[in-house]
Predict the 3D structure of the following.
Amino acid sequence: RKEVEQDPGPFNVPEGATVAFNCTYSNSASQSFFWYRQDCRKEPKLLMSVYSSGNEDGRFTAQLNRASQYISLLIRDSKLSDSATYLCVVTSPSGGSYIPTFGRGTSLIVHP
Amino acid sequence: EAQVTQNPRYLITVTGKKLTVTCSQNMNHEYMSWYRQDPGLGLRQIYYSMNVEVTDKGDVPEGYKVSRKEKRNFPLILESPSPNQTSLYFCASAKGAGMTYEQYFGPGTRLTVT
């Protein structure tokens, strides 16, 4: 079983729609969680961190469910510019430090 | 400007010809890492470094070498490239290897081995 799993999509939604992605992780000792955004083979960039209490940044809401071992990303009022691949990152303890593991990404296409 | 730079951005080479991809960061970050990204496989870590002279294998280290002689530089070395190393490579750095540190990525190096 892969450590971090995401539905690759693509999720094809109209402008203005609400869309949600999940990401499951297998290591119960995982400590921190992130969502990155990657545009068409460019470098990934941090979208938001995911806190235990959940967090919101404008149209984006991230949540963590430790009991079921998944994180989610909700995008409200989708814009054309939201079209990208969204990467889930889970950081787990390893040899005294913390190593990030990336999911394979979920592709989002927002159409007019 | 805070950034991670990689060179070259594009490289076409032949099997067996040694090559080095450079990576440099100007943020005084302790943690640096190399990833390769292939269609359907996502980002896979090749090697990482917690600090100068400290390097460790990631998920796919075979066929690669790294060194960390200075804090700012983390070159990736392919001693004898093969076609299965054709990929998009990203270097990344972070303030540390702690739980909450954001990784900053370089622009990527697209490598083709024929």
Remarks:
- Chain A has a mean pLDDT of 92.
- The CA atoms of residues 14 and 111 of chain A lie 5 Å apart.
- Chain A is about 0% helix and 60% strand.
- Chain A touches chain B through 24 residues (CB under 8 Å).
